[in-house]
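Protocol step 4 of 6: record predicted structures for both targets in the notebook before any analysis. Target 1:
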Amino acid sequence: MNKFITSLVLATFMFVNVATGKSTDMRSSSCSQDFYHTAQVCAGTPYTFNGNLLWSDGEYSSTFTDANGCDSVVFLTLWFMPTSLVEMQYPLCEGEVLNMNGVIIDAPGTYEIKYTASWGCDSTVVLYVYTKAQQHSSFEKKLCGNDSFFFANQWLNASGIYEEKFTGVNGCDSVVTLNLRIVKFVEEIYADGDRLFTAAVADNYQWLYCPSYFAIPGANKAEYKSTLTGSFAIQMEKEGCIDTTFCFEKGNPSTGIEEATAPAVSVYPNPAHGSVNLSFTQASAASLELYDIKGQLIDVQRIDPTLNWKYDINNRQPGFYLLVVRQGDQVSKERLIIQ
């Protein structure tokens, strides 16, 4: 007999007189009693009732006889509370770590996770974990001269390898690698007596008259010799990129623009429209000069000490310009294309 039921049976054999506080043994007159009991147990675990194992919900009754020969009938309402077993798959991204109810998951495998429901019974989740491979892709990009390319939330104007992460369709990170190559020319023209030449390495050359930019017949090498004075430029082609220098005054080589001494500033985007950004390597006072394609100075700006400065070009006509930035004893020259 269960202890609970035994105690119920024995308790009925005593009657307590509230007025006198004395108890009376009821077993001598009538000791047959009915009892009602409700029980809840977790599914999968049997319930023992008067020596019998019960495995399902229902209403049960059984007669219990105590040591004095008195019978009592116990009526039992029994509920089996549900437990659950859930099986599921989970894709784990590379480098991802899960904490599932205290179970740390950082590698493929089968994991059994226990949860306790509000009614006190356990639920089990079986997790089959597999790894999703991180997606990798790459591409190459070639730019000409001072062109810029927007990638990884920044404007790029230098050759190199760059990476950017995206969230892929499978929920894991995808890595895109950019191999950026800039085809640049040495844009200077040098004079040695009657000889004009450029140090740029190109596939094709064409010398031009300025300011008309008419091609000089037969002048298609890196060097051009002429006894004539005047203004000249050279157009160069390399790997599909075409670049044209500013006009050079032969016989009066000094244009008032000295040679660049250091790359003190980065200019982007280029080509530009509306405005152009200047990024300095050091925050100190600087000045900006803008020259048109004829070499005429058309704008001068003072730049207070800063690492980043925006130059408004909304009122400039589309075309080729020369941007000269002076910062201390450093001079930086950039060929700017305004669209």
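Target 2:
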Amino acid sequence: MLKGWLIYNQADAERNRAYIDWFLSEAEAAGVELQFVSKEDLTFGVKNNLLYLKRSNEPDRLPDFCVMRNMDELLSVHLEALGVKVYNNSFVSQIANDKAKAHQYLAKHNIPMPDTTFVQADDYREANFTRLVFPVVLKAVKGRGGTEVFLIDSLEELTARVKLRLERGSDSYVVQQLVQPGKDLRVFIVGQQIVGAILRESDRDFRANFSLGGRSSLYPLNEVETSLVRQIMDLFELGMVGIDFVFGHDGSMLFNEMEDVVGSRTLSLNSDLNILKIYLDALTGIIWEDDNSVSRVVIERKEIDKTPFIRCEVRF
């Protein structure tokens, strides 16, 4: 039986108890021994020139895999170095949890996106931004859920906002061209499979996040849009992520960000898809070899609730 850890920090765990219980229930049904682990119960580092990781009051036994629901690239790298398979892996964590790095990396692969300027608040000089066409969107590179995202109408407002955030400890931003406000698309991915897409819209805020009062609906990707999503997917080995897009003035999709610790409330509200069952089906189908490496898995699902037959290859 596969043994895994579901890792959260304590504060996020308290807010997501129902999701954790759902995850553990699906794991049990899939025949996976999945344990909730609080990040605060882990101690890791180097001892006697060797990497180590200890869990409070537990035997020193590492799991076969970890589902990392905590944005901690260092911990992910450490687990991987100890031979534990981590979903999402440390490279996904590094790119997805920093908006500047995400745009920098994907631009090298010709992924369309809004014009984006990287800003270090302590190096900010107003004179360098006089040619910006306002309004623009200012985003903290580590922000989540629409927090630390601001609509900026003038150069003076941009300067004031950057200086204010620097005083409060936020120091890295992206400044982006405003495209269609109040509208974005989240595409849910498990492994290398597109599970579903949700359109999020708002009439009262330039941000379309459901948690900020936006509305959501299923969105059928066309062939061109599906191809763009696959271009991005093929650059990573993914566990479960959300890839977010905004829409250009011509209606085309533009990369916005990638959610490493993605929630699935809007997908559940708008469909019968059980994304955690799909995720656990993928994990249980992995072929584990003697050296704990992973080759591949082919999953066949006849019906998940009302979902039609799908045959997909999920590669980790």
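Step 5 preliminary note on target 2. Residues 17-29 form the longest helix (13 residues). The chain has a mean pLDDT of 86.
Proceed to step 6 after PI sign-off.
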